[in-house]
């Protein structure tokens, strides 16, 4: 079982600092790439970006490094160190388990231009997406051992990492007052790795320990490295060999996704909007799929049992795991994490350069749904400057964000944060239970037309 936790940790560490959609830019005036949050959000300005002139990063978690590493004497040790009291670790660990979501976007190229009554957009973006779920019972078993209780539910242990290239073409049109848009996004899969514990339980209440396991691992492309061992014609995935090659790009699959968006001015001051993003997925080719569906029994009365080694049975059960490679490539189509946004913006009657806005975001996941409500205050103090501040409540707690956009005559610079952690490592990983999200970019107007 320690092999599994190591595999999950590798997926997280390799993910580094990543990003979801730039929520703080949803209502930002002059922000050229707002159509990524809602395909209806375009103006009449033609623009382009340079190579890698756009990047965004986000890490969202209900734990921090301070929940994993503890000071002990003059050293920093992990929570599993025997010198750290079990009660201290388990009291800090979330009762519903740890959740980490991480993404990274590198904008390679983007352009927008209006021809006739249609506004067109073209994008090329390199994306990474990582996630991990660790149940409370899993940490309890590793830290406290079987003395804590006699039944452990380890279902829901899940870690994955995806890398793909997103190409997109979009159009924005008007139908009366309604403004609507669509983006078609062909996807080139570069790497995929996943571990899923669909149903794992450990019962230690009887004379022997019985563990039921329904779990699988899958790999495609060159992002995740692994070894497959073969003996007597049986092929098995070696969990201890799992690693990550962040610098290897290899074709692994093809897919397509859609973004849909709409904007409607209900009154002169109140504007409603909605968008549905990443509706689609990737078909991975030559996927290696390993499945474990068995029952493992451990006899604690054997003569070779060390009574002082609480983790001997855990190691033996872990070593018994057989992830047999399946000849039939199952579940080769992976859907993207879907996002739904619903927004409302109200321009103040006394000054239409000042607005208040509300944005609701929902993302369904296998084991839980992500909900966020974000309140904005927006201000356009100058023709070439837009600002906003926002506060959000979501599954991982509270956060403050903000953004600005400088749309000068020859260039456009935007920067923003959805949430910020004041204490981070040099790798920008939050130390405490906090989240971090940033976005930055430069674009260049080709020429400007008057709005209307």
In short:
By secondary structure, the chain is mainly β.
Explain this structure to me?
- The chain has about 450 residues and is mainly beta.
- The chain has one domain: Porin, CATH 2.40.160.
- The protein is about 10% helix and about 60% strand.
- The chain contains four helices and 23 strands.
- The strands form three sheets. The chain has a 14-stranded antiparallel β-barrel with strand order 1-4-5-7-8-12-13-17-18-19-20-21-22-23. The chain has a two-stranded antiparallel sheet with strand order 2-3.
- A hairpin with a 2-residue loop joins strand 20 and strand 21.
- The longest helix is centred in the N-terminal third of the chain and has 14 residues.
Which helices and strands occur, and which strands form pairs?
Blueprint (H helix, E strand, L loop, with lengths): L1 H14 L30 E16 L7 E4 L2 E4 L7 H7 L5 E18 L2 E17 L1 H9 L6 E3 L4 E18 L2 E26 L5 E13 L2 E8 L2 E11 L8 E13 L4 E15 L3 E11 L13 H9 L3 E2 L7 E3 L3 E10 L2 E14 L4 E14 L2 E10 L2 E11 L4 E8 L16 E12 L5
Antiparallel strand pairs: 1-4, 1-23, 2-3, 4-5, 5-7, 6-8, 7-8, 8-9, 8-12, 9-14, 10-11, 12-13, 13-16, 13-17, 14-15, 17-18, 18-19, 19-20, 20-21, 21-22, 22-23
Characterize the main sheet: 14 strands, antiparallel, barrel
What multimeric state do the chains show?
A: single chain
Do you know the CATH architecture?
Answer: Beta Barrel
* Share of helical residues: under 10%
User: C-alpha Rg, in Å?
Assistant: 25 Å
The sequence of SSEs as H and E is HEEEHEEHEEEEEEEEEHEEEEEEEEE
- Number of structural domains: 1
CATH topology annotation: Porin
Record field, number of beta strands: 23
Question: Approximately what portion of the residues adopt beta-strand conformation?
Answer: over 45%
Number of helices: 4
Shape: elongated
């Amino acid at each position: 079982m320690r092999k599994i936790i190591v595999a999950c940790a590798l997926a997280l560490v390799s993910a580094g600092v990543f990003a979801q959609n730039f929520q703080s830019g949803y209502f930002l005036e002059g922000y050229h790439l707002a159509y990524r949050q809602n395909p209806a959000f375009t103006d009449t300005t033609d623009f382009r970006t340079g190579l890698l002139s756009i990047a965004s990063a986000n890490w969202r978690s209900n734990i921090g490094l301070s929940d994993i590493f503890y000071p002990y004497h003059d050293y920093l040790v992990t929570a599993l160190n025997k010198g750290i009291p079990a009660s201290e670790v388990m009291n800090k660990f979330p009762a519903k388990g740890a959740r980490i979501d991480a993404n990274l976007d590198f904008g390679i190229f983007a352009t927008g231009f209006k021809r006739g009554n249609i506004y067109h957009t073209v994008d090329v973006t390199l994306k990474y997406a990582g996630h991990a779920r660790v149940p409370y019972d899993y940490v309890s078993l590793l830290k406290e051992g079987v003395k804590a209780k006699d039944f452990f539910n380890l279902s829901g242990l899940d870690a994955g990492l995806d890398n793909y290239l997103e190409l997109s073409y979009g159009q924005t049109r008007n139908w009366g007052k309604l403004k609507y848009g669509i983006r078609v996004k062909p996807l080139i899969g570069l790497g995929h790795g996943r571990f899923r514990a669909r149903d794992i339980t450990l019962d230690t209440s009887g004379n022997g320990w019985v563990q039921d396991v329904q779990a699988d691992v899958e790999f495609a492309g060159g992002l995740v490295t692994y070894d497959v061992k073969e003996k007597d014609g049986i092929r098995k995935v070696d969990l201890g060999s799992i690693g990550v090659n962040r610098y290897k790009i290899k074709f692994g699959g093809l897919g397509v996704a859609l973004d849909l968006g709409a904007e409607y001015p209900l009154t002169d001051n109140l504007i409603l909007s909605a968008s549905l993003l990443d509706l689609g997925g990737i078909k991975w080719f030559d996927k290696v799929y390993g499945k474990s569906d068995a029952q493992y029994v451990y006899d604690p009365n054997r003569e070779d049992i060390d009574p002082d080694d609480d983790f001997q049975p855990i190691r033996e059960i872990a070593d018994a795991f057989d992830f047999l490679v399946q000849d039939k490539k199952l579940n080769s189509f992976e859907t993207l994490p879907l996002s739904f946004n619903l927004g409302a913006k109200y321009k103040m009657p006394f000054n239409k350069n000042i607005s208040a806005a509300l944005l609701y975001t929902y993302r369904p996941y296998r084991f839980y749904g992500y909900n966020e409500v974000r309140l904005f205050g927006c201000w356009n103090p100058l023709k070439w400057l837009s600002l906003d501040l926002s506060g959000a409540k979501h599954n991982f707690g509270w956060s403050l964000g903000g953004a600005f956009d400088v749309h000068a005559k020859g260039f456009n610079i935007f920067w923003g944060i959805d949430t910020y952690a004041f204490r981070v490592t040099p790798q920008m990983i939050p130390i405490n239970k906090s989240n971090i999200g940033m976005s930055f970019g430069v674009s260049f107007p080709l020429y400007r037309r008057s709005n209307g």
